[in-house]
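User: Sequence in, structure out. Go.
Assistant: Echoing your sequence, followed by the structure tokens.
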Amino acid sequence: MYWLKTYFSQPRVHLRSIAEVLIIFLCSLAPYYVTAFVRSATNDQSAAVDLDDLFAKGQIYLLAYALFGTLFWLAIVRWDRPRHDARILLGVVSFFLVIPIIGFLGVDPTFSSVVNPEVVRWGYWFYGAFLVIHYLLLFYSEIRPPDPQEIFDRGTKDLDRDYDRFKHDQ
């Protein structure tokens, strides 16, 4: 419950985390936009290049896989911040999400043989999920776990209140 309450009480940390994820999003897609521009410039037809064509073989999975290293670092390895339940949970979720991508990479490291449009569309979902997990990990990396003394004090007050209520009910 602490992590959920904390999520809604730190607007500055949200802004920093969102800004970093947006920069990563734009920089990771920049080569694809450059490729689209080059294709458009060298094409003698007036129609622009369809950006979906650039990801038609599932190359977006490569972008999702590239984010996994960062997610693993933020969730599990990062030693300068205390590891807590929220980070561990997000690390486990990202680990399970990367398993099918690793399977794809084992079969075709370039994703040149992925032709099923539904499987290609799922790549967008994987990439989006990894961006959201990245944002959450950045956010929760900045949040400190609750102070043990604060938890102890709160628990003591709750026990005192329960004892008083029990004593008056007798």
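User: And one key feature?
Assistant: The chain has a mean pLDDT of 82.
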